[in-house]
Every structure is written in C-alpha cells, then in structure tokens.
Amino acid sequence: MTAWDRETWDALAKIRQKRPLIHNITNFVVMNTTANTILAVGASPIMAHAIQEVGEIAAFSGAVLLNIGTLETDWIDAMITAGKSANARGIPVILDPVGVGATRFRSESAGRLMAEVEFAIIRGNAAEIFALAGFHSRIQGVDSLQDSQEIKSKAVEIAAELHSVVAITGAEDLVSDGRNCYGISGGDPIFKQVTGTGCAASAICACFAAVEPLYLKAAAMALAYYKSAGEEAARLSKGPGSFQMQLFDALANTSRASMENSIRIRQL
Amino acid sequence: MTAWDRETWDALAKIRQKRPLIHNITNFVVMNTTANTILAVGASPIMAHAIQEVGEIAAFSGAVLLNIGTLETDWIDAMITAGKSANARGIPVILDPVGVGATRFRSESAGRLMAEVEFAIIRGNAAEIFALAGFHSRIQGVDSLQDSQEIKSKAVEIAAELHSVVAITGAEDLVSDGRNCYGISGGDPIFKQVTGTGCAASAICACFAAVEPLYLKAAAMALAYYKSAGEEAARLSKGPGSFQMQLFDALANTSRASMENSIRIRQL
Amino acid sequence: MTAWDRETWDALAKIRQKRPLIHNITNFVVMNTTANTILAVGASPIMAHAIQEVGEIAAFSGAVLLNIGTLETDWIDAMITAGKSANARGIPVILDPVGVGATRFRSESAGRLMAEVEFAIIRGNAAEIFALAGFHSRIQGVDSLQDSQEIKSKAVEIAAELHSVVAITGAEDLVSDGRNCYGISGGDPIFKQVTGTGCAASAICACFAAVEPLYLKAAAMALAYYKSAGEEAARLSKGPGSFQMQLFDALANTSRASMENSIRIRQL
Lengths: 268, 268, 268
Prior knowledge:
3 copies of one chain form a homotrimer. Chain A has helices at about 5-20, 30-40, 55-60, 75-90, 105-115, 125-130, 150-160, 195-210, 215-235, 240-255, 255-260, and strands at about 20-25, 45, 65, 95, 120-125, 165-170, 175, 180-185, 265. The first copy, chain A, is of the alpha/beta class. Chain A has a 9-stranded mixed sheet, sandwiched between helices. In chain A, helix 1 packs across helix 9 and helix 2 (about 30-40) packs parallel to helix 10. Chain A is globular and about 45 Å long. The relative contact order of chain A is 0.15. The interface of A and B includes residues 28, 46, 50 and 53 of A.
C-alpha cells in the first residue's frame, strides 16, 4: 500500500464514520445522482436552495457545494447566502462552474460568486476553468475537454489567480493550490457518456474537504478515489447505463483492500 | 397466505387494475424515481406544481402527494391549492414533511400546510414526525432515525394530535390513526444508502390510499409491500446502484405468490 | 441491410461523428434521463432555461427541444425566446406537448408556443397530438394511448393543420408531414412502465433532426432506432428498473450490424 493509498483510505474511512452533511445547491439534471454519489461515498447529502433556509443549512454542514448548471438568478442569490454563511464559519465551499464561458449570463453569475464567496476548491473541465480564469475560452456544451501540456503549465498560475485550489478534470486530472500541482491518472472514457459525472467529482471533493482541511490533498484524493471506482465500474459494465449503476456500487464497496495500488497521484 | 398477505395482494391488484392517477408536488431530487416507483407499483404518476393547474389536476386524481424537500414559497402555495381541491372532493392527500425541524422555513411551511390541508397520511422518519408534532426534535440531514420504545409509545399520541394517520418509517415502521398502531418489520439497511427511498415510501402510501379508504390499513399495507420488495431487491443487488434498479423490478414483479408470507404487519 | 437500415445507420453515424449540441428546455422529471439518452445516442446535451441565456444557447445548438411537462409561466417565456432564436437561424425546434389537453394552463401554454414558434417536429402520444390539433381529446395522465385506424387516417390531416412533422407514438408510431405518412413498428410494452420514455423519443428526434434536414425522415429514423434499441433492452431486462439501464446501453451500443433488419419503417 502506497502512502497515497493509505491516506486516501484513511480519509474515506473518516467520511464513512463521521458522515458529514454536504449541502448542495446544484442543478436539476444531477440532483438525484449527486445525492446518490454522496450517499455511496458515505456522507449525508442535503439539497436545498430557498434563500430563506440556505444560510441555516450551510451553517450546520460539513461542506457546501455550489453548482451553476441550469442556472437562475434567484439561485445565485441563494448560493451567495449559503457561501457567506459557510465562509463565516470556516466551512469549505466548493464551486462547480458548469458551462461558464458558454453564455454571458453564466460568466457574469460565476463572476458574482467569485467576488462574494471564498472557495476551498473549484472543479471544472479545462474549458470551464480557463473561462473562469479569464482566458476567454469557448466551450462546446459542458463536457468538452482540452488536455494539453499548456493546460498543465497553467494550472498553478490559475489556482494562484483564483485564490483557491483548482481541480481541472479530464483524461488526467490536475489539482493545484497555486504552488504545488498533482496529476491524477486512471479513470475511463465512459465517464463522458454519462451526464453528471463531472458534477459528481465535485461532490466527492466536497465530501473529502469536509474531513481533510488541506484542500489540495482533499481534492487529489477525492479525484483519485473516484477514478479508481470508475475503473472498477467500467470493468463490470456494458455501456453507459450499466456504468452509472456500477459506479454507485463501486464507490460504496471500496474497501482498504480494493483501494490498494489504485490511487494514482503524482506530484508534477 | 396470511390475512394481511391476501389483503395487501388484493389492494395491489386493485391498483394495477384501476391505475389511479397520483398527483405529485414533490422535490427535484426524487421526481424521476418517484414517478418510476408509482409506475412500478402499477399506478399512473403526474408531476405538476404550477398554481394555475394544480387545482384541476388534483380534482381528477386518485390521491395527491405533497413533499416539502427542495422547498420554495411558491410551491407551498401550490401545495395548499392542490390539497384544498383534493380535500373538497374527498381525495386523500399524503404529506411527506422532508427535513421539517431542520430549518425555521421548513417548519413554518409545514405549519402552513398542516393548518390549511387535511391529510389522510403523514409519512416521515422519527425526527421529522416528532418535529411536526412539536416535540422539538433536531435532525441531521433527512435520513436520520431514532428508533426506540419511546417512539412506539408516542406514535398513537402523535397521530391523535395531528388528526391524520401517521407513518413513522425506520428499521421497524409504525403506523397509527390515533387509536390503533401497527408495526411493520422487514426491509434492509441498504434503503438508507439510496436517496429518495423515504419519498418513495410516501408515494406507495398514496397509491394504496387511492384504492383503500381505511388509510391506516392502506399505509400499513403499502409499507409492508415496499419492505418486502426491498428485501428481494437487496438479495439481488451488490450495492446502492444495483439496489435502486432491482427495487423498481421487484415492485413491478411482485406477484400473489411472491407476496406470500412476506407481509409482516403486527398490531402493537 | 434494407435501405432504411442503411439510411438510419448513416444518420446515427453522423450524429456520433458531429456530436451536435441539443439544447433542452424540459421538465424536471426527465432532465437526467433525457441528457443520458442524448449522450447514449452520441450527441451532446445542454439543459438551460434561464431567459437570460436561452437565446444564446439555442443559437449555437444543432437542435432545440421544448417539453412542457412540469410547466411554469417563466419557462414558456424562455421556450419562446429559445424557439425564436433557433427559428431565425434555421435550427430545428422540436416540441413535446406533455399533458396538453389535461388542464387549461397546459393547453393555453401550448397554444402560445404554437403561435410564436415554428416547429420542425411535434412528438406526443395520440391524446396529446389530438388535443393540440383541437380535436378536444381528454387524457388520463400523460401515458395514455388511443391506437386506432382513425388515428392513422388523421395523422396526415393533423400534420397539415399544425404545419409541422407530427410524430404520434404508441404501439405503432405514426409520422407525417401533412402529405406522406410512415408507420414504425416494434418496441415493447415495458416502455410504458418507465417515466420519460416518451420524452426520450422526442430527444432522439432532436438528435436526428440536427443531422437530417428532411424532418419527416429524421423523425421516422429516430423512432425506429429507438424501438429497435428498446427491443434489445427488453430482451436483457427483468423489469422496468433493469430496462431503463439496458436502454441506455442499447442506444450506445447500436452498431451497423445490430441495426441490420431492425428498422421497421413502412409507408402507409
């Protein structure tokens, strides 16, 4: 068992033991699968977006996840309220900037969030993270990916600029806190054939951030565990429908033994 | 075949033959799985929440289900309109007070519903039902459970206080109409690893209430059938993903033969 | 391989190669399964309904799908904006008039859409299409079906009246552009036991319309491919839960070989 295997297992065991409440303000497409992902990991999901209650809920959560897919103005207001409530208490807030850069509305909304809330981790694909960082990328849908050496070299720069751990997911995931940078390999191309698998990655980052205060480490371990479970699910599935089902099983069934030699994190 | 087996089978057969329309105003997380649960049972789901149409829809439904997860103020207004429309016609209204007690907004919203609508069945976990009854419970997320002798002894009292059949679900479900009380055993711990399984229990109560005017009996049979199908699904599954899939199959495939000796209802 | 097999395969291959963006403004119940359906076919889904961004998104889409289940007034406004944006650019717009005829609100909302937007394809069950055409049908829920010789003879008339290709799905699907009419046979009764399978049919029509400008042909091929995949899924499933899973796999796994002799389109 490598050091990363052991640390990732310890963090997962801690999630399952403490069952932190993860407060999600997320999009309609993935609410069900995000809740099931969080349950499969071993944490406790709550989905709530009414401005009347999000401040209270964020305050007793272990982490808050804000996801801007299927965006509406009212929801951004609620996200800011929840984010500020969490910020005031040192509770980590995770941002999933779905589709930022695709429309002016999404970019402006993401800008409002960035201005008002401090994020522990921002997770997106390369196009989204570049757009958020002002590199003026154009994206096609929400699943596009531009994986290149250039992206790797910019991850550290972007994290420093955004004052947050940044996780750029793709064939190889990159996480950086503005100084260090890790690469996480593994996974399977079938992830891209199922909606919400990126959103689920963000949710798993939230689960790990709820128990691991070094958010760079939390994000790296979360994504490596997710890729590992995805490999197991891909082995057992025959297409995107069975992959989705197997993925929940694999996340829930991950044991110390199955995690051995499956966590592929390397410092870049 | 016990008397409960036979009566539960007769009610299920009636649902499948009449296919009552179940009008749901429910939360975003479970809309899809609730609709699929109702279809698997054999009834016909409709999800509609616009205040312009909910009165009409409730009026031609066999039962109305109101669920306050992912709550918004407009939705409570629609729930009251739908509930009153159903009440005026003697159509049973079922309440699932998701997360009541967790925030002031949910408690006040549930209070508005209780004041304006008469419920045939109220189904929740112990923390939710206690909160609704004013026992000032504090809940952790929406899946917590406090199963104790004290709960059992209070079920009758709460049902009398709330003027409704009350169903408290957990390891053993309890249903009471304020005078009688039944316990329903069975099920499987994996239910708690899948989101919306509590909401689905409420939906199945609605299906049975649409064909069985004794709501205490309807709730007991609905929950016993659900636990029985859940046991079959658990036997065939390897984790929460496959359990969810198998649960739909098991609900749909329940036959007179498979129901034999699987309905575990006892008078307390 | 028949001519229809070959043409349908060519269109599917084109979808998988070009991965057109399908912009969905659809109901809460089916957002997840619709996105997964579109991914399984091989296109790229985006779900967005905010009036601030739908015009932009529609403008860079390959097709726009408007679905009026779980309707709200704001959403109709967004649908009109998206529809007009697509119309102005010659991008096909598909309508799924879920539940039209069931309430005054749905009928009026559908009427607004019909008045403001030009549709390439309108897909619904017989009750919905009849209601839309002003035949004053009454529907029970959204899954009812009235399959008769009378329906067949009226399909052409309705399409002419609605100035759109009309697809009436049921045991045998009918598609007409107001002059020609095709019947598509196959499928499986289990489709009706899973929520959103009608909505998915509309989504597949949108995928095909994005690559095939003859919308009558696009709709016929889309529905025949869907029925064919559904037959394969039904063979491998044991109930509605496993059918849903197998259906995603079958849509994704359809190959030139598996399509051979499975496309059953006939001119009526």
